[in-house]
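Hi Y.,

Following your request, here is the sequence exactly as I used it, all 251 residues.
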Amino acid sequence: MIGVSGIDRGLRIVDAIVAVVLAPACAACDELLDSPTRGPVCARCWRSILPLTPPICDRCGDPLPSWRVVSVPRQQCARCRRSTRAVDRARAIGAYDGALRAVIHALKYDGRRSLAKPIAALMRQRGADLLAGAACAVPVPLHGSRRRRRGFNQADDLARHLGLPLVRALVRTRATKTQTELPAAQRHRNVRDGFAATPAAAALAGGCVVLVDDVSTTGATLEACARALKAAGVAEVRALTAARVVGRMSS
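Below is the corresponding structure, written out as tokens. Let me know if you'd prefer a different format.
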């Protein structure tokens, strides 16, 4: 029987051979991988993905400039106190920049689907309070035409590794323009009424679900999905994304 140390030695030998023969590069920083058997992203890049540190708004998850601007009883930013939102709480691994942005792009656009599992592990770690007590994870759906072109839905891949039952409770009712192609002011209009609950949502009535997506930019897509779920009877909708764009226009 091969012990753990023997397995480790074997992996190091394989890593050395692969590194010399294939010279694979990190999907995030493009430097040569020292341990290619451990995935397409180097350990240094994973370590560089920092969490969004307090104070953050308990509602939208956006960083706050100071504890002084926080409504202490609710720990919410001024924007969330002024507006009514369908998403009850939102969190992300970190800001949509640097290594995290590069890793998400590798998953989403380069088809590096093996990255969904380690990204989801960070989502579980940094969004543990959102996952606690939730009935299931609901991935934000792609329209059928876009899914066929891409070959997979990155939100679906992330959701299946979060440790909750996966329920495809939403469907896109129409093909919309890619949100990244639109200015912030048009994104809510672009996805308005763009989602509907599936028959699977009926079993979630009165419960709490976690919406899952790769990136929250303005929050327009998450809000449209949450409205559809609440119209189907879901009591609480939380949103957990791999990253979020932080700043005045985010949430």
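The chain has ten helices and six strands.

Thanks again,
Q.
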